[in-house]
Design brief:
Two copies of one chain form a homodimer.
Chain A (H helix, E strand, L loop, with lengths): L14 E10 L3 E9 L5 E9 L2 E8 L2 E9 L4 E5 L2 E3 L6 H13 L2 E2 L3 E7 L8 E7 L2 E2 L12 E5 L1 H9 L6 H15 L6
Parallel strand pairs in A: 4-10
Antiparallel strand pairs in A: 1-2, 2-3, 4-5, 4-7, 5-6, 5-12, 8-11, 9-10
Helix pairs in contact in A: 2-3
């Protein structure tokens, strides 16, 4: 995402001097940039390139739809909102509609963007587009052959219990739970 | 963070068959694991290892303390809550107290953990501990020689304006803004 409001700031901006490509994988790429700092010194920046992802706060009968799946970086399963990686050039709204249908069977009548956020801007450019879908039509999930996950629906109270016991412990899902509570309280949502 | 509540689930769990170490940097490490899926097939998992980080929702006179800094993965500056990387074995509360003091000059009378969350559990084990500090003592910032950032304080309304124009666009800061609004509305916070 390009921020049209950003204007150069010589007191803060770094200048890229060179880029060394280290790894080109299926999901991520790794490069090490040499940059010039505002004081003229040089430094290294380890950077992950990622195509971005989509996720959805999907509410049906006052319950949030979640999926449990194994996360190899954590060595355990986690409960998360439905999500998926973006292919290059793919429309985020189409991608989340497809992921929601495949993973849970639900179809969203409408998808509203809540936030687009960088997960870890210090070392990665991964951008997640988080949508709200609060009118859903039930259907059959159609998981890929190599996709293993278990769907469930939870109340807001159960969501906070799962945050407390760390079954829910990722940024996008905690952010979605907070947004859901703000909707209930009549608070302000995103952009 | 180990989740003591996690019990093995053969329908979901992956088994690590081998690990190939690709890169060992200052901030991140990259490895590619070969895993066995629940259906017996094998697959590759690209994994970033990170020591974790700390961040703080710091409120003074009903304004949130933020810092603007350049983020090389994004190629621009961003406005974020004060944060820093954890050293191995470092206590997260000590680390955020130090980062807050260095980056902004403020000292927290008390630090309360709001959430510990994984930023991107699909490919990284980075865990951020997000604290609340709502009683602060003003002081002088002491930035490292190679640290370039500009502090400011913003209202909740300004925070949502900066989310709308993407000056604020990272997970931890949006999560903190939502938590701040929930505090004002008397809602439920984290774990």
């Amino acid at each position: 995402m390009t921020n049209s409001k950003h204007t150069p700031n010589p007191a803060l901006d770094e200048i890229t001097l060179s880029t060394e490509k280290i790894f080109d994988g299926k999901v991520i790429k790794l490069q090490v940039d040499t940059v010039q700092l505002p004081n003229g010194e040089t430094s290294k920046r380890e950077i992950i390139r990622h195509n971005g992802a989509v996720a959805v706060l999907a509410i049906h009968n006052d319950k949030m739809i979640v999926v449990e799946q194994f996360r190899q970086p954590l060595g355990r399963t986690q409960v998360e909102i439905p999500a998926g990686k973006l292919e290059i050039g793919e429309d985020p709204k189409d991608a989340i509609a497809r992921e929601l249908k495949e993973e849970t069977g639900y179809e969203a009548k409408e998808l509203k963007l809540l936030f687009s956020f960088y997960t870890s801007p210090g070392f990665a450019d991964e951008l997640i587009h988080l949508y709200l879908a609060d009118e859903l039509i039930e259907g059959e999930a159609k998981l890929d052959e190599d996709e293993f996950l278990e769907m469930s629906t939870i109340t807001l109270e159960q969501a906070y219990e799962q945050i407390a016991n760390q079954q829910i412990s990722d940024a996008k899902t905690i952010m979605a739970v907070q947004a859901w509570q703000l909707i209930k309280l009549g608070g302000k949502l995103g952009q």
